[in-house]
Structures are given as C-alpha cells and as structure tokens.
Amino acid sequence: MVVRESFDNNLQELQGKMSMMAKLSITAMEKAFEALKKQDVEIALKVIDEDTVIDNLDTEINQFVIWLMVKEQPVARDLRRIIGALKITSEIERIADFAVNIAKSTIKIGQTHSLVKITNLDQMKDLSITMLEKALQSFIEENMVLAKEVGDLDDKVDKYSGETYKAITKYLKEHPEETDQLVQLLFINRYLERTADHITNIAESAAYLIKGRIYDFNS
User: Taking the model in full, what pTM does it have?
Assistant: First the structure.
C-alpha cells in the first residue's frame, strides 16, 4: 500500500510538471500574438529567450520519466500513463516552438501597417489554447468526452486556416507590395494549423490511456 502511494505521488508530480509546461507554452503563444498585433519586437524577443525555460522543463520531465520507469518498473495502465506523459511533453515542446516561430515572423514583419485583421489568426490562437487546456485535462482526468471535443475543435481550426489562406492569397494578388508581410502571415497560419494538430495528438494519447486503443481525431 505504501509503495502504491509513493508511485501515485510520483505520478502527481509528473502531471504537475506537465501542467506547468503547458501553462508556459500558452503564455508563450499569448505573448507571441501580443507581439504580432502590437508589432512589438521586444516582446517577440522575450518569447524567443524564454523558450529555454520550456526546453529545460522538457528535459527535466524526460529524466524524471526515465527515473520513474527504472524505479517503479510500471506495467499495463501505469506504463501507458507514463509513456503517454512522455509523448505529450514532446508535443507541448513543439507547440512552444511554434510560438517562437510566430515571434520570429513578427520580427521579420517589423514596423508596418498590420494586416492581421484580414485573417482568422487570432481566433485560431484562442481555439488552440482552449484545445490544449482540454487535451491535458482529458489526460489527467481520463475524460474521453474532452478528448473528443479537442478533435472537433481541430476541425474548426482547419476551417479557419483554409479561410485565412484564401483571404491572404486574394489580398496578395491585389496588393503585391505587401508580399513580405503576407508571406509571414501565411507562415503563421501554418504554424497555428500545425499547433492544433499537435494538440490533437495529445488528445489521442489521452484516448489511448482511457480506452487502450489508438484513435485518429485528425481523420
């Protein structure tokens, strides 16, 4: 009984580290968008610099998982949870990288008349954050309903992404002088679409933990 309690405490610690990593990634995404909308290079640079904290936490979680597997030698459901946690932190790290990419695009756009208003990028960002919160909660609470909701929200992000692509390319034909900024906005559109895909992968890991079989919410 004492051994199980110790293991459960270690799982709680692992999930706490995952939650912290997700919160840091959400903050990075929010800051990246603040920089984009304000065209604030200083904020964009902070996003890039602070990514080191997320990378370090990712390494810390990886080491913790290895220690936990060696120490506890988990099997069955416990093993699925630990391996799922490892996969999820890898996805979160990629999401943070996309926030960095958005910050870099913001720096490339520089100080010019912003064209963000012709896009759905802000809505895509908000949906992605909601998705990440739901996906992590679904894993921690073993909530299949939340996992499926993430898949549904991914469809909305894809729809916004398609609309944004059409809006940007249409505007580009009419205003070729804005090519540099519009190309960066196309990149950001892609970064957000991929962010949603990685979050959907997290939901799939949660579904695998809950049901013990592989789901494809991207299909």
Answer: 0.94
